[in-house]
Design a protein that fits this description.
This protein is α+β, with helices and mostly antiparallel strands. It folds into two domains: 28-125, Phage tail protein beta-alpha-beta fold, CATH 3.55.50; 139-232, no CATH class. It has helices at residues 5-20, 22-25, 50-60, 84-94, 111-125, 151-157, 202-217; strands spanning 40-49, 64-67, 74-83, 97-102, 105-110, 139-143, 146-149, 160-165, 176-181, 221-225, 228-232. Strands 2-5-4 form a three-stranded mixed sheet. A hairpin with a 2-residue loop joins strand 4 and strand 5. The relative contact order is 0.10.
């Protein structure tokens, strides 16, 4: 079977037209590499979700958008042969939106949200460590033990917290030690042996618990309560225990 030369030539021309024309060979939304940021685009949508439209623009511009959760609503657009960047900025301006670039990512959000973020970044960058860190206020756990004891506890057991440090400053011949007796005063005219102390060391807190356990086991008193309270550093806190008459 012989194909006329003229028919074969027309077929080849048609085949070349299909491959060389993007409009015939692919859909612009299916192939985002057709467009670049300096390309001219055409958009025609009626009441499309704004977030969906921005996703279409991101695909057409072959870029990455990070959209704020505050972006809501619908929009109608009819743009023809418009530069990609002009279309993007016009759509953002019509809804009071701005964008901030971070490398290959564009963060898009309301003007007030972007402005607040930029202010925070400036303040954070002015910190001694250069920013990009979380400022967490220190929290302090205050723990108290309310004890009822007789005079023998203060006289015989007491609460003696020993402090000993060896090799101060890396010098083995320099040592320090101290013993602290913690006395107590009576409340409301009573004179039971009471005690009060501020303990920072975990070892000291364990020693106090041992002494109090010994107090109870010997029948010289008992632990009434062990209240705790959490507060901020340099913030006053109050623990109250008892019955108001």
């Amino acid at each position: 079977m012989k194909i006329p030369l003229k028919t074969l030539a027309n077929f080849l021309l048609l085949l070349m037209a299909v491959y060389l024309n993007p409009a015939l060979g692919s859909h612009p939304e299916a192939n985002s590499s057709v467009y670049r940021k300096d390309s001219r685009i055409s958009l025609q949508f009626s009441q499309i979700e704004l977030t969906e439209l921005l996703q279409v623009l991101a695909k057409m511009g072959d870029t990455n958008f990070l959209l704020s959760e505050s972006i809501q609503g619908k929009i109608s657009v009819d743009l023809k042969d418009t530069p990609w960047q002009t279309a993007l900025h016009s759509i953002l301006a019509s809804r009071g939106l701005r964008l901030v670039r971070n490398g290959d990512i564009y963060w898009i959000g309301p003007h007030a949200e972007i402005q607040s973020f930029q202010k925070y970044r400036r303040e954070d960058a002015a910190l001694p460590f250069g920013g990009d860190h979380i400022n967490s206020p220190r929290q302090i756990l205050i723990e108290a033990r309310i004890v009822e004891a007789d005079q023998r506890f203060a006289r015989e057991l007491g609460v003696k917290l020993g402090y000993q440090a060896n090799g101060i400053g890396g010098h083995p011949d320099q040592n320090a030690n101290a013993n602290l007796d913690l006395g107590g005063a009576g409340l409301a005219g009573f004179n039971p042996a009471t005690l009060a102390a501020t303990l920072v060391s975990k070892n000291a807190a364990r020693l106090l618990q041992i002494e109090l356990s010994a107090l109870e086991s010997d029948g010289q008193g008992k632990i009434l309560s062990n209240p705790r309270i959490m507060t901020g550093d340099q913030v006053k806190a109050t623990i109250e225990q008892g019955t108001e008459l």
